[in-house]
Amino acid sequence: MSLAALRQRIATVSDLLCTLNLIVWDSRTMMPSGGAAARGHQIATLTRMARDTLAADATMDLLARAEDEAAGLPADDLAHEELRQIRRAAELHRRVPAELIERRAAVRAAANAAWIEARARSDFSLFAPLLEETVANTRAYADAIGWEAHPYDAMIGLYEPGETLASLQRLFGALRDGIRPILDAALARPQAQAAFVPGAFPADRQWEAAKAFSARFGFDFGRGRLDTTVHPFEISFTRDDVRITTRYNPADLRPALFGAFHETGHGLYEQNVDPAFTRTVFASDLVGLYAVGGTSFGAHESQSRLWENHVGRSRRFWELNFAELQGFFPDALANVTPEAFYDAVTGVRKSLIRVEADELTYDLHIMLRVEIEAALMDGSLKVADVPGAWADAMQRHLGLTPPGDREGVLQDIHWSSGMIGSFCTYTVGNVMAAQLYAAAKADPGVAAGVAAGDYAPLAGWLRRCCWTHGRSKTRDAILQDACGRGLDAGAYLAHLRERYAG
Amino acid sequence: MSLAALRQRIATVSDLLCTLNLIVWDSRTMMPSGGAAARGHQIATLTRMARDTLAADATMDLLARAEDEAAGLPADDLAHEELRQIRRAAELHRRVPAELIERRAAVRAAANAAWIEARARSDFSLFAPLLEETVANTRAYADAIGWEAHPYDAMIGLYEPGETLASLQRLFGALRDGIRPILDAALARPQAQAAFVPGAFPADRQWEAAKAFSARFGFDFGRGRLDTTVHPFEISFTRDDVRITTRYNPADLRPALFGAFHETGHGLYEQNVDPAFTRTVFASDLVGLYAVGGTSFGAHESQSRLWENHVGRSRRFWELNFAELQGFFPDALANVTPEAFYDAVTGVRKSLIRVEADELTYDLHIMLRVEIEAALMDGSLKVADVPGAWADAMQRHLGLTPPGDREGVLQDIHWSSGMIGSFCTYTVGNVMAAQLYAAAKADPGVAAGVAAGDYAPLAGWLRRCCWTHGRSKTRDAILQDACGRGLDAGAYLAHLRERYAG
Fold this sequence. Notes:
2 copies of one chain form a homodimer.
Chain A: H1 2-29, H2 36-55, H3 57-70, H4 78-95, H5 98-121, H6 128-145, H7 151-159, H8 165-188, H9 203-217, E1 224-228, E2 234-236, E3 242-246, H10 254-271, H11 297-311, H12 315-328, H13 338-345, H14 362-377, H15 386-398, H16 424-441, H17 444-452, H18 456-465, H19 475-483, H20 490-500
Parallel strand pairs in A: 1-3
Antiparallel strand pairs in A: 2-3
Helix pairs in contact in A: 1-2, 1-3, 3-4, 5-6, 6-7, 8-14, 8-20, 9-10, 10-11, 11-16, 12-13, 14-15, 14-16, 16-20, 17-18
GO molecular function (chains A, B): metal ion binding; metallocarboxypeptidase activity
Protein name (chains A, B): Metal-dependent carboxypeptidase
Catalytic activity (chains A, B): Release of a C-terminal amino acid with broad specificity, except for -Pro
């Protein structure tokens, strides 16, 4: 009885979170500019109602009674994990003072406006006071929810449960040491990038091509859409309504195509969570108050990167599929060979902007950000010194110096949105993607499918090993069962070595 | 203090209602088919939260204290009306048993599915059991919220406060007597309809044309959108985000154009409600739990019909604007004259389907439905006898006999959605539109503008006399102040006589 009542209550929280995702999707794709102010109120109200429903005394009473009820269930019943996750989230929210929630929301709104202005003027000093407040509030939030070794660990745990600054430093050390020689080798090779001459790619044809490949990977357009935004993203309102977006550069089809591959990977994860988990904690991040079926941000990113990079950027993929792409752009791609196109989508160069970075240098941009975030969180770096620290780190990791704040410390939206601790999940995703793809290809059916351009066996393997479990299984449990070990840089470095220094 | 706290609480209800409207908009325009089931849960959860917040004991306590606080305010302070409306809505919701709300929602879902099936097979007997339950529940609902002369009055009052079955019967009597001779005269004239040869009208050009005229009427696309649906509608998420839709028949541009004119009228009303009313009871129907700034369904319809029929179907409008329309469709409209086009948009014929009815016969379809609804509500008509009653009334009002249930009793979605009592508002809207348009044209600036193709003075007059007041002023107070009398059929009959029997 109590367990059923508790589940009903979590279902209403899930309804609110799914609706919040719809609001966010609409805000980024459809909303006229005038709608923004009211939208802010609507988001605040629904978020507060979700939090209040979850953290209410009545929920805690129900939870305690449901735990008693579940005590009689077999040890492997998922109800135990379900109740553990609900308790963790409810207790976390109860530890955060209402006043701090309001302060964070207020600073977020102001910080976003200040960041836009500062970025336009390439002047960090306009954003610095708001970043100061953001760091102070984030530190207060970390203290409220609790941490052991380092305050940054509390924030990392929101996005990537199980990781800490210390564990990331070990992972990053291995990656840095492994990537450096590969990068040297890649840069020493002749760069074929110039062989691909950008042409005229009408946006509607790009949309059709992106949709066709997305469907080939298994994305179900009866339960999803592909729309247009400046910054591609994926978001879901249950597994049966998953929205992905991409962007269109009329002179270059690569951003649209690889944006769509990436978001399709995210979308496949959401569309394939066990339907029994709909409206439960196993398809809701109750800590982050975000409707999502993926078990961590890193696990989610592993799926997007797997389809974008391991499948979509492979030589075999374009041997098999370039003719289909040419069919969409018969003029612009008339004189391009599959080989030249492959070279054009695997070019390597050191660059200043994370979102434009290639596969091989991407993680160096992440390491830089994690270093700075950690130092801000423990107070060893002052906000005023961030541009200098950025320049130092950029020089150390990539040998480059940003010409101004716009191309440096102001390039990312994350800090202005109050997000500190999420960057590491991009690299976790890269590492996990390589582990899963290597394990999948060890399955003869998957390998034969990929070799022949049939991606259904791969999707089936991922569904079984990862997607279907939603949030009922941790990232490391998924890795352990699928690959025989937890997060480990080996497979990723082997993949980078083969592709870029082979 | 209490008044401010109460307003804050109503603001959160408004946020929920605006979000519900976004969910509805998305469901009808963007949602993939797979999303429907989860969407139903989301709508149910948000509706229940809005109702519970409004009807909570804590709200009633706040309300009582706010009323004490407001007692010291001047008699003409809007706070008195604000509190009166909040109390009326909260008390109404507290009178309806939770069990009845759930029963109505459950029947609505089943009735909609049964109606779709019954309509596809043109077999009323498949829908009859659900209509039986719908009528029983509606009667129970009317009893719960209370009525005096007739149970139907309770339902009419939800959509058109102030009207009753008796007042409608008086209005309909005057209209029936007035329309009959006009209709005879119109049908005796040669029908010019055939002079307009349908052509090829690409949907994207229709969208551009619709948008251009909508903007000409004053619709602000910085605070709104025009999208595509099978059934055009308007919906808003505050005045600053108003969405309208229309539909495209590639062989005939009239449905898109007049659909857009109609919804633009609704949209103008919402976009021009006093900004001070955003997130207050004066932009929320707290009884119907619907975010809307228009003061009644009929008042809303008056604005859509004013722009669609009085402006958009006038001879002068096409004398002035046909060349612009031709610019969008240079081939298809090459040999059409403004006069022929005017004739083609003011043709009259008796027909079976309400939504295809012309301006002159439209209200006869409404009278038929109101007769049947009233008789169902007081039990003088049994559900099993509805098709017969429909055939009788159709013969009496229009001299036609439907060939089957699909073209008769199953044509409208309303009853399957649990809506009994709303049909009358279409006729109220027609009547009110004529009164307001006549009063507006008595203003020399408005008349000169309309004569010259400048619609800004008309929009300004409507903003001042109607739109800006939102729900702070009743329909009859608006009419009284603008026209010197309440709802009255005279202006409408004069307009019909001039256009169709002139």
